[in-house]
Each structure stands twice: as C-alpha cells, then as structure tokens.
Specification:
alpha/beta, three-stranded antiparallel β-sheet, 11 helices
Length: 284
C-alpha cells in the first residue's frame, strides 16, 4: 500500500478505537497498518499525517507531536472524518458495500457545500445526481429545464437523452453576478467513491452541457473524491481534464462541524461505519 492508504488506516484505527492517544512507537510496531506488512511505508505515512495536520489545522482530527498522535477533543465527527469513513478500497478496512448508496449521497452533499465555498459569496449548488433532491424531476429530459430555471439561464436545444439520468453530473455549482447577466462561473462536478476514479474525469461532456443549458462558454469540469492521493501519475491524469477536489481540499473548504452531519440519517450512517471499522480492527 502507498503511504496515503497506510495513513488512512492509522487514522481510522485511532479515530474508531478507545485509545485517544498513541505513541509513534505503537504506530510503527503495533498498529494494524504495521501488522499488515507496511513497515517500509510507516514513516512516510506518519509524515503524510503530519502534512495533513499542517494543511488543515483544527479541521484535521488528529494532533501530531514529535512523539505521539492524539485525537483532537472536539464534539462529534467532522467533515474530514466523514470522508475518511466513506472512502472505499482500503485493504486493511473493508467497506460495507450495503451502505454504498447512502455514503455516496452524503459525500455529494459535502461536495455541494465545498463547491459553494470555492466559488465564493452568493454561490449556489444543487445535488443533481439521479434521482436527485426533492423537486428535481427524476427523468433527464425534465431535469434539465428544472436546472435551467434554478440557474436562471435561457436553456439550450440539445437533445436530452432519457438514458443519461444525470449526464455524469452529481453536483452543479454556480455563482451569478449581481447584474443577472449570463456568463458566470459554473462547475459541473462528478463525485465518486470508486477506488479507480481517473476515468471519471471524462464523464462530463462540457460541450454537450453548454448546449443543454444554453451557455456561451463551456462550464468547468470538477472531479471530487473522498480519498487522498499522492501527486503522481493519477493526479496528472485528472488535472489535465478537470479540477480535482480530494479529501484535504474539500475539508479545507468546509467547516469542521458542518451542520449536515448532525442530521439523524447521516449521523447514524457515520456511527455504523465507525463501528464496522472498529470491529474489524478488534478482530486483527
């Protein structure tokens, strides 16, 4: 496993376990990550955790010292922890696939909040993923006029293929100008929990969406993922086609105590995921 995944495993074990502080000797010798044969990547993983803490400050759930890792004493789970819990594909922490759909929807809501912050004051964002939010018609040919109305656009004449469902777009974000004229920033966001996500950057056909919405300028494509990745080949593959929002970037764009997470539905989901990983680690 690469250092990013090993760091995720260390975070999960600390955040879901009963011990809220661990010496670095435990991380290197006794943690699940160490016992899974990742000794060569442990030091890199600790450095990765320290970098995440530096970038996010109080939005990061762990405090890092020269000798230990400590869980930050804050009420409830934050946005970073929520994204960590819905990250799939960790070989040391099997994701419960029966909660995949709910986890994907929660992540889409988090991304919508981040997108509004990214675009600035006055920005709006809607979850467009099929079947969509209340009010959004489930059929694609009817969903486009609904979205056009939300965005106060003129709309286009391109064919609205019923088979498209959401056209590869899970969240639409925009920031209109006070003059009410067209030609404002628009982001079309594909949000995915898939481990192999690079191809998802090509799911959004910006030219087609321009024709569907009646735009003068193509919108910006964005790929959002709840995981972290090193700046390697995969990062470059996405960055040439879309803006990449990964866990650290999204956490930096949202308040730690996002009110959404206190909703009973999402709080129950996160509690279930946390308990699932806790039980897996106890059995090791």
């Amino acid at each position: 496993m690469n250092a990013e995944i090993v760091a995720d495993t260390i975070e999960l074990e600390l955040l879901t376990g009963s011990a809220k502080a661990r010496p670095l000797s435990w991380v290197r010798n006794d943690s699940v990550a160490a016992n899974d044969g990742n000794a060569t990547n442990i030091n890199l993983a600790v450095q990765t955790i320290a970098r995440r803490a530096q970038l996010l400050g109080e939005r990061y759930p762990l405090e890092v010292t020269d000798t230990a890792l400590k869980v930050r004493q804050t009420p409830g789970l934050g946005v970073y922890e929520a994204m960590l819990l819905v990250t799939t594909g960790n070989p040391s922490a099997a994701f419960p696939t029966e909660r995949l759909a709910d986890s994907a929807e929660l992540f889409e809501h988090i991304v919508a909040h981040a997108a509004r912050t990214l675009l600035g004051d006055g920005a709006r964002a809607v979850r467009f993923a099929f079947p969509g939010e209340p009010g959004r018609p489930p059929e694609f040919p009817q969903a486009i006029p609904w979205l056009v109305k939300q965005m106060r656009l003129k709309g286009g004449t391109a064919y609205r293929d019923p088979a498209r469902k959401d056209g590869g777009v899970d969240v639409v974000a925009w920031r209109p100008f006070p003059d009410g004229r067209p030609g404002f920033p628009i982001q079309l966001i594909q949000a995915t929990l898939e481990k192999n996500f690079s191809h998802k950057a090509g799911d959004i056909n910006a030219r087609l969406w321009s024709l569907l919405l009646g735009l003068d300028v193509d919108p910006t494509g964005v790929l959002a993922i709840p995981r972290t990745i090193p700046e390697d080949k995969r990062w470059a593959e996405v960055a040439t086609r879309a803006i990449l929002l990964e866990r650290v970037r999204i956490a930096g764009l949202t308040p730690r105590d996002l009110s959404l997470l206190s909703d009973l539905r999402w709080a129950s989901l996160l509690e279930f995921l946390s308990r699932t990983y806790q039980n897996q680690f106890r059995e090791r």
